[in-house]
Design goal:
By secondary structure, the protein is mainly α. It is 45% helix and 0% strand. Helix 1 packs antiparallel against helix 2 (43-49). The protein is elongated and about 55 Å long.
Length: 96
Amino acid sequence: MAHGVQLVKAGPAYDANPELRHMYQSIIGTLLYLMLGTHPDISFAVTKLSQFMSNPTSEHMAAVKHIFCYLNGHRHLVIRYDGLSGSGLIGYVDSN
């Protein structure tokens, strides 16, 4: 999503066609999967766009395309978990 973009909910008279709605929901689901697994850097934009899944507009689709352009341009950025860092895996539990 470009800096400074203000996405707003569509007006009450607007109703997205079912194909656009289904495609938008599918794309957001894919981006949520990427965000949780490998790209936490897109979390703000994806969660913001997920607020408009029930009635997306062309502005929302343009913002989604912007995220894909970002991902394409930053393919070299990855999260790597290797055993060479020396820090172990630590877990905490708060159960009574």
